[in-house]
Design a protein that fits this description.
about 170 residues, about 0% strand
């Protein structure tokens, strides 16, 4: 991968980690009836959401070859699998359980369930067809803006060798 691709991956990861965290905080607060901060990071940054988006972005061209129903099931499956992995890691590595779906219908070891599979399928479709196409140009504008270029490296720019400079 070249530098532009890495920059895009980092920008998408960071932006969607923040957006996903806000959506999760809003959803959890709405469900609880009061403001609640359930993120494991204790911040407004949820890396799990950024990685989930990167999974979708890396797979979307292949998944778009399926019917709409196939796309829905693919996004639901991949994102539910990712939620299962993050839940398993949280329990087995950090010793904490951030969500427990053990009482939910068709749950898998309490880490994910059929409700979230459906939510992830819907979110995947909305993301690919409606959300990302509208957010992407703004993220690219940020990447390519002169203001952002000054913040790409903490080091000053390296001038070309004098032998290459004409004048």
């Amino acid at each position: 991968m070249n530098q532009d691709q890495w920059e895009r991956i980092i920008i998408f990861f960071a932006a969607y980690s923040i957006i996903g965290a806000f959506l999760d905080i809003g959803y959890a607060s709405m469900k609880a009836g009061e403001f609640t901060l359930l993120l494991s990071t204790g911040t407004i940054f949820g890396p799990s959401y950024g990685i989930g988006v990167l999974i979708i972005l890396f797979l979307k061209d292949e998944i778009k070859k399926f019917s709409l129903l196939g796309e829905f099931f693919s996004y639901g499956l991949f994102l539910a699998a990712w939620e299962y992995c993050t839940g398993w890691l949280a329990v087995n590595v950090r010793g904490v359980r951030f969500h427990d779906y053990s009482d939910s219908l068709l749950n898998l070891h309490g880490h994910t369930d059929i409700e979230h599979f459906i939510i992830f399928g819907v979110l995947g479709m909305l993301f690919v067809y409606h959300i990302h196409p509208h957010i992407r140009p703004y993220l690219f504008k940020f990447i390519n803006s002169p203001e952002s270029q000054t913040y790409t490296s903490p080091l000053p720019p390296i001038p070309p060798p004098k032998s290459l400079v004409q004048g």
